[in-house]
Design brief:
By secondary structure, the chain is α/β, with parallel strands linked by helices. The chain contains 12 helices and 21 strands. It folds into 2 domains: 92 residues, Urease, subunit C, domain 1; 312 residues, Metal-dependent hydrolases (TIM Barrel). The chain has a 7-stranded mixed β-sheet with strand order 3-2-7-18-19-20-21, covered by helices on one side. Strands 11-12-15-16-17 form a 5-stranded parallel β-sheet. It has a 4-stranded mixed β-sheet with strand order 5-4-1-6, with no helix packed on it. The two termini are 14 Å apart. The structure holds (4S)-2,6-dioxohexahydropyrimidine-4-carboxylic acid.
Amino acid sequence: MDEFVIKGGTVIDGSGERIADVTVSAGRISAIGPNLSGSQVIDASGCVVSPGFVDLHVHLRQPGREEAETVETGSRAAALGGFTAIVAMPNTEPAQDSVAVVEQVRRWGQDAGLCEVLPSGCLTIGRAGERMAPLGELAAAGVHLFTDDGNGVQDPLLMRRIMEYSLDLDIVLAQHCEVSRLTTGAVMHEGCCSSHLGLPGWPSIAEELMVHRDIELSRLTGARVHFLHLSTVRSVDLVRAAKADGLRVTAEAAPHHFTLSDEMLRTFDATYKVNPPLRTAEDIAAIKAGLRDGTIDAIATDHAPHPAHQKEQALDAAPPGMLGLQTALSLSLGELDLDLPQIIALLSTRPAAIAGVADRHGGPLAPGRAANITVFDPHASWTVEPDRLASKSRNTPYAGRAVRGVVRHTVLNGVPVVRDGEALR
Ligand code: DOR
């Protein structure tokens, strides 16, 4: 299907909101306006037609942990969730610290053909936090976002050097903020709930110290820093103040950090174990406020598949992480008191800019632009059933939850990859 018209929807992108049809031809948007026709019609009545979503934070697990996810299964979950581009986190085995590995991940993404897979690169070799990864070589190979996600870079001197080195490259340094000396053995947020349960906690300060350190290092060096999965009141306050000072910082938050609290750990169910951990009602309110006022630039899923035999262990043995790609839109629509243009900015336009793909993702939807488009019904409801998700893993904390917002169609470079809610590949 090379030429078609998306008919009857409301187009919402950074340039506004209008009732319009969209024609697509040879991979690009050819026209936008009322009453357009085409030989093939994709029905968008009752739906929003938006630029495809961009997820800055996805664990695809390949190479190395294919029993949890592959680039193909994760890409399918992404497409079904409305994403046309995803940043693949580097904590694979081997890690994404060489051109060979990032090129292989990108190729797997191209072979799957379900969304654009943008491999991140490691900040340090093997994510070990000791020696700088070959940032220049990786940047030359097209890597834009660098992170040791899963780990924060502990050594402030090394982080300073990485920031200084990055100034000659058009790249973003994305930090997983966690001072690991403060979180050894943690299984949940440190607070009242962890005290009642007698479980070792991840204190908020472990995150906030590194957010603060990297804001100050960015102030010193001028480096561009992105803060991954912010989860605490103070982290949001620190980023807000840094932005007010004009620093080159951006931030993201994950849906689980604005929908679930540490109270869930009373179940002792490791489905709710995630890093950074689910925090308190006050933290949730701060994340929502940060999303509302622009302190937090993007909603990013931190999609972290793990096989059942690992997640069904006791809290201390189970790995942290939860699925996110197919529930992000619905949770954003249902739990954030934001209008559709704001939600689309958080899921598409602003993450596209951070990922360095604004030339082809994130809108605006306009003639001549690459046709990366998501069509969703913001009112239709569905129930999260783990067995019906496309991921190879089942570790969603939202099983059985009734939510609203259904992705109907996803178009990648002019090719429908999801139609009527079904993946075509
Ligand atoms: O919960 C998490 N899971 N947080 C991380 O930082 C890593 C991720 C994973 O790779 O499973």
